[in-house]
Write a structure and sequence with these properties.
Layout: H1 2-22, H2 27-34, H3 40-50, H4 54-62, H5 66-74, H6 76-103, H7 108-120, H8 122-151
Length: 153
C-alpha cells in the first residue's frame, strides 16, 4: 500500500503540471494555477502516509537533527510522507511561478523549461526563475523610467 501511495502522490500532481507546462494559455490552466486546492489530494496522501509514523515524524520536526530525519526516511511511510510533502509544495511553487510568469509576460517557451526543471529539481528551477524574474522586473522598471523620461515635456 505504501508503494502505491508513494506513486499516487506524483500522479495526482501530474495533470496540473501538464497543464502548466503544455497548455499555459488555456483558461483552465489559469484557474488551476490560481487555486491552492490543487494540492489537497496530495496532502491527503501525505496524511495517509504520515499518520502511521507520526511519533517518528513528530520527533524529526520537533527537534530536527540529521539522525532523526534519517530514521524517519528509513521507514517506508516516512519516506513516502516526505515525498508527498515535496510533491505538494513543488506544485504550489510551480503554480506561483506560472502566475508570476504570466504577470511578467514571460513567454511560455521560456517558462515551460523552467517549470520542467522545477518538477525535477525544484530548488534549481525556483532559483533560475527568481533570477529571471529579478532581471525581468529590473528591465521592466528601466523601460518605464525611460518611457516616462521621454514623455516628459
Amino acid at each position: 500500500m505504501t508503494g502505491f501511495l508513494f506513486e499516487l502522490s506524483f500522479w495526482l500532481a501530474s495533470p496540473m503540471w501538464l497543464l502548466l507546462i503544455l497548455a499555459p494559455g488555456l483558461r483552465l490552466t489559469e484557474r488551476v494555477a490560481a487555486s491552492p486546492l490543487t494540492v489537497v489530494p496530495v496532502l491527503l496522501v501525505y496524511l495517509a502516509l504520515a499518520v502511521p509514523v507520526f511519533p517518528e515524524l513528530w520527533s524529526a520536526v520537533r527537534s530536527p537533527d540529521l539522525d532523526s530525519f534519517r530514521d524517519l526516511a528509513a521507514l517506508a511511510n516516512g519516506a513516502g510522507a516526505i515525498w508527498a510533502q515535496v510533491i505538494a509544495w513543488d506544485l504550489l511553487i510551480g503554480q506561483w511561478m506560472y502566475r508570476e510568469g504570466r504577470r511578467l509576460e514571460i513567454h511560455p517557451v521560456v517558462m515551460s523549461p523552467l517549470l520542467v526543471l522545477t518538477v525535477l529539481l525544484s530548488p534549481v528551477g525556483l532559483l533560475a526563475f527568481l533570477a529571471l524574474r529579478a532581471t525581468r522586473t529590473a528591465h521592466t522598471r528601466g523601460s518605464r523610467t525611460t518611457a516616462r523620461a521621454s514623455a516628459a515635456p
